[in-house]
């Protein structure tokens, strides 16, 4: 038992400070994503839109990922993972601010959802190489597991926070918790959290120390196109299964509570 505790402590000590900063970013941004995911469809219903609009806007956000996946990867390679992540967070916060302040017509909602979807893709794609840059091969599995666990935990917390936010802010706007103004102010927290998620990334992030020797990992060839296609098909199938359900679940709650 004591040996296991000692190994755990040693492992924690070996994790660079840069990793903890990136994980803190993931927690804060994950909270923003969870609140946005829960409240946006309620916001659409309060504007008078129906479930078909929620499905359309969800498709638009994912279409941004489909169209910009390759260019996003090229951008990350060109400007660096940290710069790309900060850029994605900036665009994400800007997109939500513009959507809440000015987008009421369907065409405006479509444009801003495309921007938000593209920014989300950029942030998600940039985190992986950034974590790889600051961790060693031995640390990578553990750290990536922590990052995935943090996303799940903060998703639960974000759903709870998002559920109570409209009631908390309703007295501020002098309206009902299900009013457009209440949902607008509650979704304003997404903008604030996205900006806050940038803070842990400010300042230099120390990359892992690389020796002058060329390792087997450095010599590893890129994955063959056939293997990449297998991963892509698996992701497509899982996304297709979630597609008919995911955008509409909150619309159902909103319709039943109206």
Descriptive keywords:
258 residues, mainly alpha, Growth Hormone, Chain: A, globular
Helix and strand element order:
HHHHHHHHHH
What is the number of independent domains? Answer: 1
Assembly state of the chains shown: single chain
CATH-defined fold name = Growth Hormone, Chain: A
CATH class: Mainly Alpha
* Rounded mean pLDDT score: 80
Name of the CATH superfamily = MFS general substrate transporter like domains
- The separation of the N and C termini measures 55 Å
Which runs of at least 5 residues are low in confidence (pLDDT < 50)?
A: 210-220, 239-243, 251-255
Quickly give the structural class. Answer: mainly alpha
Task: Give the CATH architecture.
Answer: Up-down Bundle
State the helix count. 10
- What is the strand content? under 5%
């Amino acid at each position: 038992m004591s040996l296991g505790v000692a190994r755990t402590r040693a492992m924690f000590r070996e994790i660079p400070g840069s990793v903890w900063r990136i994980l803190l970013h993931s927690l804060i941004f994950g909270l923003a994503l969870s609140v946005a995911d829960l409240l946006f469809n309620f916001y659409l219903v309060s504007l008078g839109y129906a479930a078909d609009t929620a499905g359309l806007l969800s498709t638009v956000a994912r279409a941004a990922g489909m169209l910009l996946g390759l260019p996003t990867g090229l951008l990350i390679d060109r400007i660096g993972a940290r710069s790309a992540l900060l850029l994605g967070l900036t665009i994400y916060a800007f997109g939500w601010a513009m959507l809440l302040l000015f987008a009421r017509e369907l065409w405006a909602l479509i444009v801003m959802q495309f921007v938000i979807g593209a920014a989300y893709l950029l942030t998600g794609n940039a985190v992986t190489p950034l974590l790889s840059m600051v961790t060693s091969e031995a640390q990578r599995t553990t750290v990536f597991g922590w990052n995935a666990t943090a996303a799940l935990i903060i998703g639960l917390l974000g759903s709870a926070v998002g559920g109570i936010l409209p009631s908390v802010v309703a007295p501020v706007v002098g309206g009902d918790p299900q009013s457009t103004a209440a949902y607008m102010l509650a979704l304003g927290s997404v903008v604030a959290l996205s900006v806050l998620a940038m803070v842990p990334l400010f300042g230099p992030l120390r990359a892992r120390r690389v020796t002058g020797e060329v390792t087997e990992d450095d010599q590893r060839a890129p994955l063959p196109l056939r293997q990449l296609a297998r991963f892509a098909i698996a992701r497509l199938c899982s996304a297709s299964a979630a597609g008919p359900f995911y955008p509409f679940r909150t619309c159902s709650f909103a319709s039943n509570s109206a």
